[in-house]
Amino acid sequence: MFKQGKKIKAEYDYLLYERDPDPSLHKGFDNSDVIYLLMPDRFANGDTTNDNVKGMLEKADRSKPLGRHGGDIKGIAEHLDYLKNLGITAIWINPLLENNMPKQSYHGYAITDYYKVDPRFGANEDYKNLVKTAHQKGLKIIMDMVENHCGTGYFWNDNLPTHDWYNQWPEFTRSNYRGGVQSDPHASEYDYDKMVKGWFDVTMADLNQHNELLAKYLIQNTIWWIEYAGLDGIRQDTYPYPYKDFMAEWMKAILNEYPDFNVVGEVWLNYPSQVAYWLDNTTNRDGYRSYLTNVFDFPLMYAMSRAFNEKDGWSSGTLALYETLSRDFLYSNPMNIVVFADNHDGDRYFSKVNKDIRKFKLGMVFLMTVRGIPQIYYGTEILMTGLEHVSHGELRKDFPGGWPEDQNNAFTEQGRTPLQREAFNFMRHLLNWRKGNKVVQFGDFTQYIPENDVYVYFRHNDKGAVMIMLNNAEKEREVDLSRFEENLKGYSKGRSVLTRKLFENLDKIIVPAKSPVIVELIR
Ligand code: CA
């Protein structure tokens, strides 16, 4: 009840729902998962009647790369079986909340109502039902959230609850996007202020989480969504941009309510040392503790982007992968890192490897067998391409077959080109093998310095071992296995995961040019 003097200005009844008693809820995601990132406006249009909704400023127009294309929650729901068949176990959906902005509202990062799904995607109930249906199929749902900024079309924008609801500047001031200043012991206040209080964009107002009312609003909103929708995880946008003390409070509030829950933070920084600062630890020199359970591996993504285009050298080719992973000592727990080859903000992987299917396979095998939790971007399995310098729209093209009028439907076998079939079948085989293999999911990771252009590493525990060999040369390589004795001890043969070929002994293995070999070792 809101009063002015004695006069009641507004009344609102809050409904207190029962908590869902399902004990399997809110258990988070882990190394057994493979995450599929999809952009809801660009994945599938299951309901063309919601493409345009009265009161929503931007209309659908598929001819515009940065316009709205009409994808929605129903489109996702209709393709859950497709994803399950592919071997996916968790889906990270770019923001579904209302973005009532006049243009470029498709990407979802200018939220205008934290409590409401955008009606062009569906209703709150549709989202809740999507999670429920996904759970019935053994799929988890990870919600994309943004605590740093909201869209300037937010309903409070023209009449802010308090002047300091936003970080205010005399004139528009952009963030310097240098997330590293938050951990830099030498950072100036000038740079810090621009980083944390500068606006992400003219259409994205910088929220001041040091306002206690706003901080509470954001925390309550997060807890509400976890409980209401039955979420399995959160991906938090622009993690180093808000005040870091607030982000720690936000994390603590979540874990206090749901101790097994996960949040993966977008800490988009280049060096493992910078990313490690944000993954929960008790050893940061400035005493900062984030409580953040997971981070993305941007440094490894950058190494993956070049490794198979380069020849192996002291720090090039697969040595870039080896060197990056050798810095894992910086992380409190390297297993809690989400590994990826691409996402909605950068060049698609098939473009990065110059559309070479051999390099693509090397990259995907690496991604699915390295330590951490793998994430792929929608359309990777059918070799979708796109380069960032052309346009963000290029990275976020419609999944072919997601729209009723599409000529080709790549969701079906018949709708794929021969090369797309090769990639899809490869991915499905790899993902479904990983899905049933605890050793590759949770096993220890031991790597050997790449030699003669072949990078060899093992995933192993007391139950078994898997040997991964990546040949980065344009020629086949015969690899003498005696160097790997410490990991091969106790095993007498092996079977290729990709070809099912049996290796009768573990003396030598021939790895074809620019190809991976995965060997499940047999005692
Ligand atoms: Ca639609």
Give a brief rundown of this model.
About 25% of the residues lie in helices and about 20% in strands. With about 525 residues, the chain is an alpha/beta fold. It folds into two domains: about 25-440, Glycosidases (TIM Barrel, Alpha-Beta Barrel), CATH 3.20.20; about 445-520, Immunoglobulin-like (Sandwich).
Fill in the CATH topology of the largest domain.
TIM Barrel
- Share in helix: 25-40%
Tell me the number of structural domains.
2
| Each distinct ligand | calcium ion
Structural class: alpha/beta
Work out the strand percent: 15-25%
Shape type:
globular
Radius of gyration: 24 Å
Q: What is the mean predicted local confidence, pLDDT?
A: 97
Terminal CA distance reads 71 Å
- Number of helices in the DSSP assignment: 16
Keywords for this entry:
523 residues; alpha/beta; TIM Barrel; Immunoglobulin-like; 2 domains; eight-stranded parallel beta barrel; six-stranded antiparallel β-sheet; 22 strands; globular; binds calcium ion
Can you offer a commentary on this structure?
This protein has 523 residues and is α/β, with parallel strands linked by helices. It has two domains: 27-441, Glycosidases (TIM Barrel), CATH 3.20.20; 444-522, Golgi alpha-mannosidase II (Immunoglobulin-like, Sandwich). The protein has 16 helices and 22 strands. Strands 3-4-7-10-11-12-13-14 form an eight-stranded parallel beta barrel. Strands 15-16-17-22-19-20 form a six-stranded antiparallel sheet. It is globular. The model has no long low-confidence stretch (mean pLDDT 97).
